[in-house]
Amino acid sequence: MSVDAAGTGTSGMTRRPVRDWATDFDHLSPEWAAHSPEITADLRQRCPVAHTERFYGAYLVTRYDDVVTVAHDTVAFSNRITAVNENRPENIRLEAPPITLDPPQHGPLRRALLPPFSPHAVRRLIPVTEAICDRALDALEGRTVADAAVDYAQIVPVEVTARLLGLPPEDGDRFRSWVKGILGDGLIDLDLAARCTREVRAFLAEHLAERRRRPTDDLISYVAHAEVDSDDGSTRPLGEREQLGVLYLLLVAGIDTTWSTIGSALHHLSTNAEHRRLLVETPSLIDAAVEEFLRYFAPITMGRIIEHDAVIAGCPVRAGERLLVGYPSANRDASQFEAPDEVILDRAHNRHLAFGVGPHRCLGSNLARMELKVALQRWLARFPDFEAAGEVVWTIGVRGPSTVPVRLG
Predict the structure, then answer these.
(1) Which regions in the chain score pLDDT beneath 70?
(2) What's phi and psi for 359, nearest 5 deg?
(3) CA 41 – CA 335 distance, rounded (Å)
(4) Which CATH homologous superfamily contains domain 30-408?
(5) How confident is the model over 65-74, as pLDDT tens digits?
């Protein structure tokens, strides 16, 4: 079910308007999608730990230091439930290791998955990523207007992920529909999310079975044969449910987050000619610019389940309710960043939290950085002059522009 600007889904359900974001927030509303930076800026000042009775009770942590504290405290704030939606916490059974595991189970499994995402492994994917970008850009040649999100940003991570997993790029449309059905519309339409999840897991189970019989040089084969080191020095293979959960996470979570950030960066450059010219004329700025786009447009606000009563910044929080770790809000905290609501391409101090912090920091951060950097470099090399050609609509869940209309120079 999609949601329009008035807050009404296509099935006819209308979301109750928010009275006060400090006591009644709704992070799945169109208003939040459009204005969350302004909403969280207000909350950081007057109510850094907000609460709502929606979603069977949930909290929102908005300040940098508090976000870091919560992210490190896996005893009080567990990752076994990461979704904050209309589903009751006790009904959520998603297995997506390592993100849905806590220490001590989390560390060994995460370490087993690190090699394919090391800096060296990611560098090997740069030529592949460049070729994917160039093919998408070739399709735009001769056009005067394009959608930088649909025609480019939403293509690159899908095809890179398919290549990494060893899947045909023709499955791209299917991947996009699954991702949107789970991390977009499915956050509200739980039946849609459940159906897409079943389809993804069945699809991956089929490919896992094939790779167990005939391994190839891809990530599915790697996961099918990966082993976890135990504390006693022994090793064990991943169980079938673990393998499915790992691949589900890599397929779903690694796509939407990256295409959202690429789309956000291109939207910014389409509306800021000075920054666009600066990146074209000073290519050495790209690494700092990538970090700044990640800080400014961080797309993910992650969920936790509160395991026992605790206190955050002087605010008591109740066991059994859920909590949102506001990484995007933390990235705009003036206590950590000078002029936090400005994009400063050469920002020197930039310890942003776009990839999270603590034990659950994003496993694929090297890959996401590379994709964002290459996608921007190839776009600017092909279209150094472009400008906005319409308004963007920001998505719920993983926040990014669903469309980025641009006029190509």
Answers:
(1) 1-13
(2) -60, -25
(3) 12
(4) Cytochrome P450 (1.10.630.10)
(5) 999 999 999 9
